[in-house]
Structure formats: C-alpha cells, structure tokens
Amino acid sequence: MKHVFIIFIILFTVSSTAQQSITLQECYQLVNQNYPLAKQKQLYDAQTKLDYQVISKAKLPQFSLDAKASYQSDVIEIPIPNVNIDPLNKDQYRATLSVNQLIYNGGATDASLQLKATQLKTKQKQVEVSLYPLKQQINQLYFSVLLSQERHLLLEAKQTQLQAKWKEVQSGIKYGVILPTSDKILEAELLKINQQFQELENNRITLIQTLSSLISQPITTTTLFQNPLIETNIETELSRPELDLFQLKKEEIENSESVLSKKNAPKFLGFATGGYGNPGLNMLDNSFQTFYTVGVTFHWNVFDWNANKKQRESLIINKDIINTETEIFKLNTNIELNNHEKEIAKMEAFISSDLEIINLRKEVLKSAEAQLKNGVIMSSAYITELTNLYEDENTLVMHKIQLQLAKANYNSIKGQ
What we know:
By secondary structure, the protein is α+β, with helices and mostly antiparallel strands. It folds into 2 domains: 22-59 and 105-265 and 300-414, Outer membrane efflux proteins (OEP) (Up-down Bundle), CATH 1.20.1600; 60-72 and 87-104 and 266-299, Outer membrane efflux proteins (OEP) (Single Sheet). Helix content is 65%, strand content 12%. It has helices at residues 2-17, 24-34, 40-56, 108-131, 134-174, 182-215, 241-263, 307-373, 379-414; strands spanning 21-22, 62-71, 91-104, 224-225, 267-278, 289-299. The strands form 2 sheets. It has a 4-stranded antiparallel sheet, with no helix packed on it. Helix 2 (24-34) packs across helix 5.
C-alpha cells in the first residue's frame, strides 16, 4: 500500500508539472469559439427559427371572433298595406366566428422562407468576416511571444558564457596575468543581463495576458508556444470569407426578386363564418338566429403602376454594386499579398546575410577570447565583441520570426 501511495504522488507531481503548450492553430480556433462576437451566430439562428414559425403560420387556418351590438335611429319597413311583417328592432346584436384558409398564393410563403434562410447564412457569414481580422492580431501577439522566448534563450547563452569568462578572469587576476579590475567589468555586464531578463519577462507577460484575453483561454508564463513551420502557396486562389459573403448577398437579392415576383400572384382563400344574432341572415325574421356562410375568395392585383417592376430593377442595381465591391476587394487583397510576398523575399535575404555576419562575429570573438586570456585586451573589449555577436544573433532570430509572421499574415490574407 505504501508503494502504491508513493507511485501516486510521483504521477501527480509529474502531471502537475507537465508543461502546457499551445499552437497558432489552436489560438485561431479558440478566438472563433470564445470571442463575444461569435455568439451572434447562435442568436441569429434562434431568431430565424422564430421568423420561420411566423411565416409558416400563413399556411394554417386563421380564426377571428367578432361581436357587435348597435342601436339605429331607423330601420327598413315594407311599404305594403295589410302585410303582417314586423319591422326590425332598432337594437341589433351579432356575434360571428370566422375561419380563413389560404389555398394558393403563388408560392409567396415558400419564397419568403427561402429568403429568410439565405438571410441567416448572410448574417452568419458576416460574423465570420468580422472575426477574420483577429487572425492577424493573433499572429502579431503569438510571434511576439515566440520572439521573446528566443531572445530569452540567447540571453541565457550570453549569461552562461560571461559567467564562465568571469571565472577565468578571476583566475587570471589571482595569478597576475590579467588586470585586477577586469572582473568588475564582467560583473557589471552580468548585472545588465539581469535587467534585460526582467524587461523581457515583463514584456512577455503583457503579450501573454493580451493573447489570453483575446482567445478567452488561461495562458501561464510557463506555457510553451510551439514554433510553427509555415509554408505559403502563391498558386492557390483567394479563399476569404468576404468572397462567400458577396456571393450570399447576391443569392439574397435573387431570393428577394423571387418574393417580389410572387407578391402580385393570384390568391385563393377558403372561408367559413358561423354566427348568432338578431337579425340573422334572414332580415325579415325579427328574432335571434344562428347562421353560417362558406365559400372561396379570389384576389389578384392586376395593375400596381409598375411598382413591383421598379423594385426588382432596384435589386438588380444592388447586385451590380456587390459585383463592384467584389472587384475592389480582390484588387486591394492582391495588392496586399504582393507587398507580403516582397516582405517574405526581403526577410529570406536578410537571414542569409545574418548567417554570414554571425560566422564572422564568432571568429572575431574567438580571437578576443584568446587575447583576453593572455591579458592582451581589456574585458571591455571582449564584452564589446560578445555583445556584437549577441546583437547579430538577436537580429537573426528577429528576422526568422518576422519571416514566419509575414508568411502567417500572407496565408491569412489569402484565406488559407
């Protein structure tokens, strides 16, 4: 039992200290799920279901209840002598229950339902379009954190190298090979490194907190940000949600045209009315009676002064406007893609040059190390060369991250 308990503690410790990690794709997914705007998709869906129910009610029987009581100053009399017909009462009463059933309306109800379905898709796609710019915001934050991580590693390497050199210098001072104050210069540089660590950490915490708020997911400072390997494909076509939105807007216009075309279609309705009143349908019977009527009605708006036609012409103009907006969007997007292609090529050229510079810096630093060890140069001269190498390595790291960022933004702009 004791051994089982020990194993449990070990497993719990390992699991609790396991380093959490996150990827760029996970950030994309989380912001689409958790950003407050994303909730509008479900709200639009619920709203459209209610609209469906309202429109569909047109196919169901429509009931109405009416009641009327009146008193009139005069009534109809039969001007025939010796006819035993009582005149109507001046106070009259009537209550009726009517039922109307739509039989045919040219498919107007189904067209309205189809229009609502397209409008729902348009609204939900608009939400996606509004969320899409967040991808580039995430790219900026994510790769800034990666850059901070890489700079931290480089600073650690510089610190380790300085600490080792500080020990060598102290040994040289002890044996009189190196000037006594040389170790103080290295100590001062190590203190500066500690300040740089603090600045890097503060900046990293701010970036992580901002990203965490954006994706509504807790991220700690121990979270490992995976460095993605991003590839770009220049040959692929644009696949942005805006293009889908433009297409859906045109479909919405086409469905609106369908609704308008059926607006003036002939309509058939069946009706039935039952009632109780005085008088009833027999106006000569001056008593309370029950009565009913059944039948069908026909309605056709034959001429509307071309109002319907003008509305459809207006919708066609809207479709042309959307086509223009589509062309403008494609033009601006392709210009932006071209700029990012140049940025990618520039970063690749910089990286190639950075590697050559670093190789030369390493040779210079190697020579400076030997000179410092033999007391030929001061510690300050060595620190200068070490800092030059460190700065160039930082530049290389920055250019690599900028290259990945440019590729990620390129893919985002293209819709990949």
